[in-house]
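Lab manual, section 2.4: Encoding a predicted structure.

Procedure: take the sequence of the chain (190 residues), apply the prediction step described in section 2.3, and record the output as structure tokens. A sample record is shown.
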Amino acid sequence: MRIYLAGPEVFLADVEALAAAKRGLCAAHGLTGVFPLDPPPQAPDAAWPDWLRISQANEAHIRSCDALIANLTPFRGPSADVGTVYELGFMRALGRPVFGYTHVARRFGARSLAALGPAARRRADGAWEDAEGMAVEEFDRHDNLMLEGGIVASGGRFEVEAVPPDRRWHDLTAFTRCVAEAARVLGASA
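Recorded output:
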């Protein structure tokens, strides 16, 4: 069983070492971890610009996998990496199980309010809004409700492991729990 390993780790300087560690944990559970930087199952058109080749290669990876595990740790703001979120939704639309984890325990609403700072204001009904009058989502979730909703509805699991900032992108505790659960759901055997 093949598992697509989505997350912003592709931007790390030591990405290959982390990818190898994640693939190793997958293999220990009878799964094949597929990292976004792996060679795609079919080569995208060489005439396309780099950004389009990367996009199409990752979609080909996702189509070739049985499930997805997404690192939804907030990235460059209060929410998860938008590319990772796209990949999670893409896999969910294919009807396959998705799993996710975060290394930040603070909830999305609180992170959003902190990012807005003094621009946040209370409405007459008590809800928070931004300077443009848009309500701040407050469902006591770890990110946008569609992410956790899609994970739960697919039969997957969302894991939280509060990790100090200096280990945020390298800790594999929550990832390992997702791998074990994916192996159980997919019926993989080590």
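Check your result against the sample. The mean pLDDT is 96.
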